[in-house]
């Protein structure tokens, strides 16, 4: 694109001050040429389209880009950069923080007071005596009529205690019957399958049945041993009595035989005494016979 105004050199540009830029722009604007527009008569049959010639422009961006800033402007810009920012308003921040904390504290205090009031009301309700408290109940009878009755809590509690004791006694009775049934079942199992199949491994409730079976067997053996000991004692007493009787008889027979033998040999009275002493010392059982 052609330019009507020549750009100044670097040296010439350095000689001009920034204040001359307005004059330069004015000169460029006045010297800019605009092509004339050709006007032709319009034909009646067919209009002719008009084509405008593009306007010539001149760019001065390079001039401003290469322009230098003077020392005064540099000093002013440097002073503006070094200037510290304005301090924040700490009082407003403090007031905002105080208002936020006050709102939070008020909300928390209201929640705590409501909780304590609810706990106090519940404690009063729970600590009230229930013995004399009356309860109204409405129900429908079998005939379809509505009925309303009043119950005293103390009486209902007493009735419930009695019912509970009665049911506990029935439950204990049922448990005893259950244990008897289990013991009977284990005993039948021991009789059919043997003791090894019940309780030796210590698993389940079979050990209890086997233990009971052992206790029963032990009691039977103790009774049998007691009877045998009684019989042995009786037999021992009879045997000792018979031995004593036989010793007496044999002692008398020996003494008589010795006396007959002594008389037959013609031994005197001294010999008889010695023979009697000898026989007494040789047969100690004869001493008891003499007594």
Automatic annotation (TrEMBL):
Domain of life: Eukaryota
UniProt organism field: Lachnellula hyalina
Basic and acidic residues bias locations: 9-23
Protein name per Swiss-Prot or TrEMBL: Uncharacterized protein
Basic residues bias: start-end ranges: 65-84
Region ranges (Disordered): 1-91
Alphabetically ordered keywords of this record: Membrane, Transmembrane, Transmembrane helix
Membrane among keywords: yes
TM segment ranges: 249-268
